[in-house]
Each structure stands twice: as structure tokens, then as C-alpha cells.
Design brief:
Distance between the termini: 7 Å
Radius of gyration: 13 Å
Shape: globular
Oligomer: single chain
Strand content: 5-15%
Structural class: mainly alpha
Length: about 110
């Protein structure tokens, strides 16, 4: 089940709560990275993507997000060095949001 959050900051708070309860949820780390990227908190986004990749080094959504965050940080060499990326553009449909609305999975 998914619930609509009133803002990205509300979604970040909810996902943070979920991750405190179960830090092994890959999707939650990835969504956190997406939200933080959208909010311009790029260093924190990198950390969120790296948390997902520490649990599954081949998790493609986090690989794409990490490369995008590196690119936004002005680190194109790190972006291109992200495994499986080779400078490819971010595919559509990876983001957690549609039409500016944030969604998180409810328990």
C-alpha cells in the first residue's frame, strides 16, 4: 500500500523512520536518495545510494541515482565510474514521484 505524503520533507521523515526500523530495505535507501537529490542535498543522497549498494552492489536504481548525484555534484568521473553506468542517461520510470507527488510505501 502506498500513501501520499504532503511534501518531500514529510516523505524523508517517513522513510527515515522506516529505515530506523529496518535498515535493509533497498528501496527505502534508494527513495531517500531520490528525495535528497531533489532537495539538493547531494552529499546525503550519495550516502543513501551507497547504503543501498552496500546491501546489493548491483541494485540498478541506486546505481543510476548515485551516478546522477555525482553528476550533479560536478563529479563526472565518479559518475562514469559507477558500475554499469558508463555515462548512460537515467532511464524513465526510476523516480519515486509522478507529476511532483511523493509516495512512500505504508506498512
Amino acid at each position: 500500500e502506498f500513501r501520499r505524503c504532503s511534501s518531500d520533507l514529510a516523505a524523508i521523515a517517513k522513510i527515515d523512520q522506516v529505515l530506523r526500523e529496518d535498515p535493509d530495505i533497498l528501496e527505502a535507501h534508494n527513495i531517500m536518495g531520490n528525495l535528497l537529490t531533489k532537495e539538493g542535498q547531494l552529499n546525503e543522497a550519495v550516502e543513501a545510494y551507497q547504503e543501498a549498494l552496500a546491501r546489493d552492489p548491483e541494485y540498478k536504481p541506486a546505481l543510476f541515482g548515485l551516478a546522477l548525484a555525482y553528476q550533479e555534484l560536478g563529479r563526472p568521473k565518479d559518475a562514469d565510474a559507477t558500475p554499469g553506468r558508463a555515462g548512460r542517461p537515467r532511464p524513465r520510470g526510476i523516480w519515486y514521484a509522478e507529476h511532483g507527488v511523493s509516495w512512500v510505501r505504508a506498512k
